[in-house]
Design goal:
Layout: E1 12-15, H1 25-52, H2 59-76, H3 79-87, E2 92-94, H4 95-128, H5 133-136, H6 139-164, E3 174-175, H7 182-186, H8 194-227, H9 232-260, H10 269-292, H11 296-311
Parallel strand pairs: 1-3
Antiparallel strand pairs: 1-2
Length: about 300
């Protein structure tokens, strides 16, 4: 009979990742590295441009800069470790490294759910309450909304991280995933984890379903307001900004909900890996493209910045 023990006694975990498909590891390494570089370049571009150009010092681009910084941190919390594991034979991560990774991945993922909800509220006020926009979206209030998003995400993660790492594990310490996450670690437990699974589902519902419902409600109100618009230019601008945000919401929420809104035992482990790979690698790299594609504000900011540099 296997002796129960904590992972801390082993000192490390083995991240199995995609070791079942060794012939795919080189291909995955190249593809993931490309997406990671796209994520770094695209999100840094948005952050720097929003900071340098005064015309982009608006609530929309303030929240977009937060989202870009969040995506940078989110991908960096797991992708470098994944690239190392794909490239070499060693697929280990220290116990402390696993604990830190789990905390930040969950914290940043939760923060993104709340931040996307805040961004939808900003679009709702801009379209449905345009005369009161500057009052309702005051810079101090915007900073408070952004801070609340980060605090809620890190607080929620602290709860799950604390309870997950006190669970006694079976003799082996092989995590059947490419990064440390709560459902994957719960599968290693020798004891009943229903309380942990229930807590995870409840908090995931709070931080995923409620923001999603509020986002859809905001866009329902926006759609009604758009239908009353007479200006073709106004319609195009609304669809440009709101459509981009709604696409980002879909790319993030749908895969994440497939993972966290069902018990770990209900997931196909291999399917879960590829779903997680999508929202941790692909989605953050697409966000800058989606938000800047056909965006006149961004194009204007680039032209102004290039003109300023040319004059200097």
């Amino acid at each position: 009979m296997m002796k129960e023990k904590n992972a801390s006694s082993e000192g490390y975990f083995v991240l199995l990742g995609f070791s079942n498909w060794p012939h795919l590891e080189v291909v995955l390494f190249v593809v993931i590295l490309m997406f990671y570089l796209m994520t770094l370049i695209g999100n840094l571009f948005i952050i720097i441009l929003s900071h340098l150009d005064s015309h982009l010092h608006t609530p929309m681009y303030f929240f977009l800069s937060n989202l870009s910084f969040l995506d940078l941190c989110y991908t960096t919390s797991s992708i470098p470790q994944l690239l190392v594991n794909l490239w070499g034979p060693e697929k280990t991560i220290s116990h402390a490294g696993c604990m830190i990774q789990l905390y930040f991945v969950l914290a940043l993922g939760t923060t993104e759910c709340v931040l996307l909800m805040v961004m939808s509220y900003d679009r709702y006020v801009a379209v449905c309450r345009p005369l009161h926009y500057t009052i309702l979206m005051h810079p101090r209030f915007c900073r408070l909304l952004a801070l609340a998003s980060w605090v809620s995400g890190f607080t929620n993660s602290a709860l799950h991280s604390y309870f997950t790492f006190w669970i006694p594990l079976c003799g082996h310490h092989q995590v059947d995933h490419f990064f440390c996450e709560v459902p994957a670690l719960l599968r290693l437990s020798c004891v009943d984890t229903h309380a942990n699974e229930l807590t995870l589902m409840v908090t995931s519902s709070i931080f995923a379903l409620i923001p999603l419902i509020l986002i859809l409600s905001s866009y329902g109100a926006i759609a009604r307001a758009v239908l009353r618009m007479q200006s073709t230019t106004g319609l195009q601008k609304v669809f440009g900004t709101c459509g981009a945000h709604l696409l980002v919401v879909s790319l993030f929420f749908i895969p994440a909900m497939c993972i966290y809104l069902q018990p770990p035992s209900g997931n196909s482990q291999d399917q879960g890996k590829f779903i997680a790979l999508f929202y941790t690698v692909v989605t953050p790299s697409l966000n800058p493209v989606i938000y800047t594609l056909r965006n006149k504000d961004v194009r204007g900011a680039v032209k102004r910045l290039m003109g300023w540099e040319w004059e200097m």
